[in-house]
Amino acid sequence: MNIHKNASMxxxxxxxxxxxxxxxxxxxxxxxxxxxxxxxxxxxRRWASQGAPGLLDRSSRPERSPRRSDALKLERAVALRxxxxxxxxxIAERVGLSISVVARACKAAAVARLxxxxxxxxxxxxxxxxxxxxxxxxxxxxxxxxKPGHRVTxxxxxxxxxxxxxxxxxxxxxxxxxxxxxxxxxxTAKCAFAFLLAALRYYKSLGVNVERVMTDNGSAYKSRxxxxxxxxxxxxxxxxxxxxxxxNGKAERFIQTLLRxxxxxxxxxxxxxxxxxxxxxxxxxxxxxPHSATSHRPPITRLGFEGNNVLRNYI
Length: 315
Hints:
Number of domains: 3
CATH superfamily of the largest domain: Ribonuclease H-like superfamily/Ribonuclease H
Pfam families: LZ_Tnp_IS481, rve_3
InterPro entries: DNA-bd_IS481-type, Integrase_cat-core, IS481-like_transpos, RNaseH-like_sf, RNaseH_sf
Number of helices: 14
Order of helices and strands: HHHHHHEHEEHEHHEHHHH
Oligomer: single chain
Radius of gyration: 31 Å
GO biological process, one term: DNA integration
CATH architecture of the largest domain: 2-Layer Sandwich
Strand order of the largest sheet: 3-2-1-4-5
Distance between the termini: 66 Å
Protein name: Integrase catalytic region
CATH topology of the largest domain: Nucleotidyltransferase, domain 5
Helix content: 40-55%
Domain Integrase catalytic: 144-306
C-alpha cells in the first residue's frame, strides 16, 4: 500500500492511537499524536465499526461522477482510432466528445500513436496562396455490386460476378481543400470532360475561378478533347511526374478519405445506394468536417463562409 509522503500516521500508528484513546482519553491521545480531536474521533469510529481494515487509507475517488464521459462514447472513440485511423478532431466531431477527452481515451488504450502503414518518404509540403490557383484532379475505380461483398462480410464467396466497374472522379482545391466528386460510368475522356465542367461550375458557385489544373498522365487527361477544353477556358494544365503519385498528393489523400469515411465506412446494400450517399457526404466534408490543413475547421471557412446558408449549401 502506498502512503502519502505527508501522511502524519500509518495504519499501525492509527491502531496505537485508538488504543491510547481507550487508555487515557480522546483529547490527551490526540494531542500526543499531534492530531485534532476531530481526526482522532474519526479513526476511533472506524476502528469500532470495521476493526483494523477501517484504519487503511481510502480512495479519494468520488462515488458519483455525473459529468464523466459516457463509457460507450469512449469505447467508440477508441474503435474509430484503432480501426479507421481517424484523427482526434474527426473522432470528437463524430462521437460528440472534446478533442482532449478523445486524446486521453486513446492514450489509455495505447492507440495514441498508430504504427505506420508503410515506410515514409521525405515530405515536401506546399500550399497555394489563394483559392483557385490550383485544382487537383484524379480518379479511382470502384466495383459495382448488388449485395455487400467480402470487404464488410469477410466472406470472399459473397460477390457480384460480372458487375463491372464505375469511376469516382475527384477534384480538390489546393488552398481551401474544398472538394468536389462524382460517380461516373468510367475513366474515359468523355467522363473526364464532363466532370471538369461540373467541377468548374461548382467552384464558380462558391466564387472560385480556377487558374490551373493538376492531373496525372492518364489517357483521359492527355486526350485532345480534355486539352482543347482547358485551352478554350484559359486554364493551365500541369501534369505530375511519371510514376510519382505523391506529386498530386492532395488528390490522392482526398481519395483515401473518401474510401475510408464514405465508400467503405458503411454496409451499403448495393453500389447504387453507395453512389446516392456521395453528395451528402461531400456536403459534410466541405461544410462540417474538421480538416487538419485548415486548423481543424471545415474547408469552406477558407473561402470566407461561416455558419450555414441554405441557398448556398444546396447549389
